[in-house]
Amino acid sequence: MVDAWRPQPMATYAEMEGLEISHDSSDDGLPPLPPGSSYRLNRYTRPLIDYVRNEWQTSAKYTSLSVSPDRSDSPRWVQMFMSMVTAPRFRRYAIIYLVLLVSCLVGWMFVLSPRLEEHEALVHSLDPSNKDEVGGWFGMNALPRFDDITQLRDLDSSLLPAVKAQKGGRPSSRRLIFIGDVHGCKDELELLLDKVSFDHERDHLVFTGDMINKGPDSPGVVDLARKYAASCVRGNHEDRVLLLRHDMEASNTLSPDSDGNISPELFFGLNTRDRALARQLSNEQVQWLDACPVILNVGQIPELGQVVVVHGGLVPGVELDKQDPSSVMNMLTIDLDTHVPSSRRNGTKWTKLFNKHQSLLYSSLKGSVPDPKSHVMTVIYGHDSKSSLSLKTYTKGLDSGCVKGGKLTAMVVEDGGKQSITQVRCRDHRKEKG
Asked: Can you tell me where the transmembrane regions are (predicted)?
């Protein structure tokens, strides 16, 4: 009766045989045994846990925690290694470290290594000792002059913002507002001027070229710029339309009735849209656009150094009056060996070489001259709508693709050289043109 009430396997954990003990009911509250009765302790040769029949012994999540009997004779270091490898925490750490290792490799291969290689290539291309190896860099010699365009012009210094900002948070005495490629989008231009709170009495507008063509109201944009006595540079679209206009005037084909007499030799003469715009512009508008220089030297501005405005770009290290006008209006990339610019995109962006050139110049002057920033140059440009707004240390790209449904951008420079960017959204005028 007692054996049924208290199972023997749970009664003891000892190697005893034939040992009898008496039971005192006062110890655990059990009923007293008859005189002469006792519990008999059986002998168990294995741990009691081996006699348990439940999920503990058969579940995979528990069996992996114990050392297999097959490794009982293995060296101790093998057993330790296997116990670490099979531990869940080890697997978690292994996954984390593997992810970190893969991330480092990917970062090195696709981010850090390409940048280091690019840096080395840029520095090598600017090393004067390499100039003779390629027969001289582009622009080192005097270039032919073009009598029908203005190469370089200086901005009136009275239009520049003050060197120091106004005290007490007062508005700037003067502001320069640089505007990216408008392409005939007059409505968006007016919205942008409203957004920057344009004040003709204290603000001066500077257009980075391509004011006309592609958009709905090129003559209206020119009239607005003339109204506010804005400054501008000659872009590649002004250049092609003006050359076509002058060719049409010289060949007496300015009248719409003379389309049948258009010669294929005319500059872009077979482009219907360019020809229509060339006829649409008035003589006064053509004269104003003709006066836009290829390069506008704005002057010294705090935090920016010498500021220059072009439409396409500049070849670093070449004097402004020796820059090739066609390249200045059209360049996108540059050859690192010869410094020859190109209007195609299959090369290094000219801005990378220019920024590296100015950065090295600034580093060489820092600590040796009182104001090294005044000896470097910052270029404000348009033309590269694919890169959209691109603000680097020494180059500021403002063409954000307005005519294609992008944005029209203004860079506002205030007293003390403070800079800010303002943009408005544009309609996609390509769809309207069909």
From this structure: 90-111
